[in-house]
Amino acid sequence: MTSPIVDVADLSHVYMQGTPLAHRALDRVSIQVERGECIAIIGHTGSGKSTLIQHLNGLMRPQSGKVVVNGLDVSDPKVDIRLLRRQVGLVFQNPEDQLFEKLVGDDIAYGPFKMGLPIAEVKERVEWAMELVGLSFDEMKDRPTFALSGGQKRKVALAGVLALRPHVLVLDEPTAGLDPRSRNELLQRILRLNQEEGLTVIFVSHNMEEVARLAQRVYVMANGQIACEGTPRRIFGNSSLLQEHHIGTPEAVDILYQLREQGYAVDTGSFLPEEAAAEILNLIKR
Amino acid sequence: MSTEFELSRNITIGQYLPTNSVVHRLDPRFKLAAFVIMILAIAICSTYVGNLFALAVCIGMFWVSKIPLHYGLSGVKPAIPFIIILATLQLLFYGEIARGGTIYFQYGFITISSESVRLVLVSAMRFVEVIFLSSVLTLSTSTTELTHGMERLLGPLQKVKFPVHAFALIITIAIRFVPTFAMEMEKMMKAQASRGADFGTGEWWRIIRRTKDMLPIIIPLFNVALARAEDLILAMEARCYMPGASRTQYTHYKATGKDYSALIISIMISVIMLYIPW
């Protein structure tokens, strides 16, 4: 077995340390992510999810504990932080706020230019990144950024991070505030990045449908700690755990739980709409 | 060393530290008035002992309001360069004006006398005192209380058609949004850093390059600020806010003996400061 691409061990972080307002955001958090995995981090607001992912590309340095990403030790003060940030592409919440260039192409090219790449390669990367998020290079590269729709802006922002060619893509609530169509399309794109480009994906989400659809493994955070970890099947199949940590369930799972309460024998471990439908069909046939 | 981007922590303006001390519970109108009196006294007082006394009073204020002194010191730290520049300029160019006392050193236009040294030291002390005092004021008074107090104190100006309410509202909004924009800026810096931007790594004399480095933050920040302003307008209009309409007050302050004594104490301190002859 190869070593995990993201290895967080006993990470703790206290905000406003040494003041009466001190607040422990992370408390001995450990997560391991293998190359090519798609991981979801879920949990209540204030459970420490954002603080955790900011450690992954060195925006925050560990106060205690260890964070190693692709062999780079984030706690080492001499680590090449720019190299680290190229390996881990972090996409913030509402990333469309960060666009600043007049034209779409220029904005996506910002990262590669900052890396000091020759112009031909920058162009090639912009084209590659735009195709990945589903924006036509020829059609969109000279469009003004302010004239785009919300969904398109978010794709541009995502392309701006992808153009760095990261090994790990970290997304903070990638679909928050999008309309259902853009949401679906973006999820498709992320899934394809993971499956076809082999990108390791870590995403934070409040939307359980999304988690059910994308994630291979789920980390549940509560009060700055990892409350539990497992496959979506295991997590969504455990109703007492979900209730304890105030986590919602995908609608499909909700229906199955309700059926079971009514006395029907259904497998509540199914969490995808298709699986739930199959369970219900089984019931009807019987 | 995780503080690279923690901007909101460094902004002390508008930061309120609830320790529920006597100072915290004072009527904001009286607190503000006492504060203004003390600041005036500090501005006038130009003696060594008077300023040392004022400094002691300021430090005592931290103790009375149960606020750790390092809050005040962290306010002084960023001002140190200014204090040093000011002191140097005064030392070099004020000798001619503040002539008097014994002359220690004279060369060309540079005159250093006991009077100009006094000016330098007293200005530095004043600086620290003013920072300490305003830190205590903002740390012990929430911004709403502060603007309420200000609005009431300025109330009489309404007679000469001064838009007191609008003025108070502007200040409230400005102070209210300082932490918001600090957070917004922090987020923006992190987002751009994630895309390969770096800030403050260029040599300091390459001002143009360093300014250009800031563009990816400044432009989106303006966008966000304008969007927020529009939201705020809508929210206010949705609640029927009318500029210039007559308004009733939600909070009423009633001065007690404590508040009067705070005012009297501040006047006494000021009188002592101004009457110390050395």
Topology, element by element:
The complex is a heterodimer of chains A (286) and B (278).
Chain A: E1 6-15, E2 23-33, E3 38-43, H1 49-56, E4 64-69, E5 72-73, H2 81-87, E6 88-91, H3 104-114, H4 119-133, H5 137-140, H6 150-162, E7 168-172, H7 180-196, E8 200-204, H8 208-214, E9 217-222, E10 225-230, H9 232-236, H10 239-244, H11 251-261, H12 273-285
Parallel strand pairs in A: 3-8, 3-9, 6-7, 7-8
Antiparallel strand pairs in A: 1-2, 1-4, 4-5, 9-10
Helix pairs in contact in A: 3-4, 3-6, 4-6, 11-12
Chain B: H1 7-10, H2 22-25, H3 28-44, H4 48-64, H5 69-76, H6 80-93, E1 103-107, E2 110-113, H7 114-140, H8 143-154, H9 164-194, H10 207-238, H11 257-275
Antiparallel strand pairs in B: 1-2
Quick recap of the structure?
Chain A is α/β, with parallel strands linked by helices and 286 residues long.
CATH superfamily of the domain at 1-79 and 168-180 and 195-232 in chain A: P-loop containing nucleotide triphosphate hydrolases
| Count, helices of chain B | 11
Number of DSSP strands of chain A?
A: 10
For this entry, what is the oligomeric state of its chains? heterodimer
Helix content percent band of chain A: 40-55%
Roughly how many Å apart are the termini of chain A? 45 Å
Strand order of the largest sheet of chain A: 6-7-8-3-9-10
Give the CATH topology of the domain at 1-79 and 168-180 and 195-232 in chain A: Rossmann fold
